[in-house]
Structure formats: C-alpha cells, structure tokens
Amino acid sequence: MAANNTLFFDVETPNQNNNSICSLGIIVIRNSQVILENNYLINPEAEFHERNIQIHHITPEMVEKSPAFPEVWANIKQYFNSCLVVGHNLAFDLSVLNKTLAAYDLADETDEIVYADTYYMAKKCYSLPKYTLDYVSEYLGIDLPEHHNSLCDARAAREIYEIIDKKFGWAQDDLKTKSFKDSKPACHERRKCITPGVNKGQPKKAKIDENIWKRNERTVIADRKEEREIDLKGKYCCITGTCSSGTREEISKRLADAGAIVVKGVTKKTDLLIVGGLGSAAWAFEGYGEKTKKALELKEQGIDIQIVSEKEVFRDI
Question: Is the pTM of this model over 0.85?
C-alpha cells in the first residue's frame, strides 16, 4: 500500500529533555518522485548535553548560526499535512516534534497526520533479537553509513518501508493518526534565546534570574520555621537541578553513604526530592522542571513527599 505522497523524517535532539530539535532529516516523495531531500541543522535555543553530542556529533558551534525551528517548520509543515509520515521508532520523533511545536505555539498550524512506523512493522514481519534502526538495516542489507545523522536515518527508514511494502504490504490498520492541536505548552518549554554550549561534559547552565530562583525556591521548598534533622536512612531520594556542592554522581554517593536510596525519577515511592543549590535550567524559562512538577502533583494527591533544598540536606550529613 505505497502512498503517492510519502514523507520520511528523523530528528536529533540537543539534550535529554527531548523537547527541542537540533537536526531534522526529511525526504518527501510525490508520485514516485523525490521533491525534497534535506538535512536541516537547527538552532535549538537550548542547552546541549555531552551524551547527545557523542551520539549525533552535532556541536553547539555547528548550529549557532542555523535557523531556529519556526523558520524550518514554515518550509516543511505543508508536507506533514499532506503526506503519509514514516519513520523508524516514530513515537520518539513525533513526541519530540509535538513538544517542540507546543513550545513555539505552532501546534494549531498542523492538521491531524497519518503515520506508519517501520519499527513496529519490522517487529510484525521479522523475528529478530532487536529492532533498532541499525540492526534492522543490517539485517535487510540496507546501507546506513552514519547512524544518527538525521538524513541517513530517514533514508534507511525509507528503504525499510519500501522493502516491507514490496514483500508483505501495508494494511490500513498499520497506519495510525496523531493530532498536535491539543498540545499545551508548559511554561518551561517556552524558550528564550540561549547560546548553545557545553562545559566539561555537563549541560551549559541557562542563566537563571535571581528573582525567579527566589520565587521558585519559596514556592516549591517547604518553609522551615526551625531547623530539623532530615533522616535519610532507607529513604527514596531523587535529585533535581544543578547542585552546588558537587557533581550529580558525588551527591548521589554522599546520599547513599548516609543510607538513602537514590532514584532517577519521582514516583509515589519517593520520600525526598532534593533541589540543587543552583536551581534547574528549566527555571530560566520561569517554570518548573519535570521532576518538581511531578512532585507537586503527587503532593496535591496526598502523597507524603518532601521537596527540600540541597543545603538543608547536606547540613546534616
């Protein structure tokens, strides 16, 4: 069931927040003819994480003078509205696109799209130990010269799509729909221009206005009329923001040495959310980070979770 109008795309992100794009590869086919094939470098107006750079090799310097997402989107949105959208593990790419559109208040410009995910079709058609793009490509004899180059990944997804279509065909129920119009931009996803950069393997810190920091600190961290000891033994602790007394690894070790159980995310089991002394980069956008938002939501549900400052915790250990 090869569609007459088909769009293949892939995105790369500057950091693990997955709500901004630094590269977008796209191939548009109409009536069997390629009418657009491009790899857009995009200034994400957000910090870069070293781990992401190691994956896709895009550095802040490479995109510093590139257009921001709205300028690129103005040139390609018409194709998303009129084509079958295809990619590999497309749930990730569509999620990033969804958050990016919401962050720039562009979601209303996009109609409901129809999409097909070659990841799930590969699982349906082949019995393999894993279904990553590089593994499926190798299995099918597809050349993937530069994995995590957006355009190379889009080309590989196109070949997987065409091979599966030729051998097995695509049924109507293999196609899904998605609407971006209900996406609501969270405060912290509204970007101000931040010069991209990295600092010795750590995300570059967004400049946090002192008034915003004080306001958020007062809002999310419980007021203490008198100092009290925080018992960490056996407590599930999660860290958010940038710590002033060491790296995240060093802080985690100190907590573990004090008997705490350090976890990566906030759940109903979490006893303490520890806010780093330098705040969260999300606070630069006058909002809260995802962990703080989750903790506040749980508190509203009656879950006994404390939000405390790094300073208060390490006063006692």
Answer: no
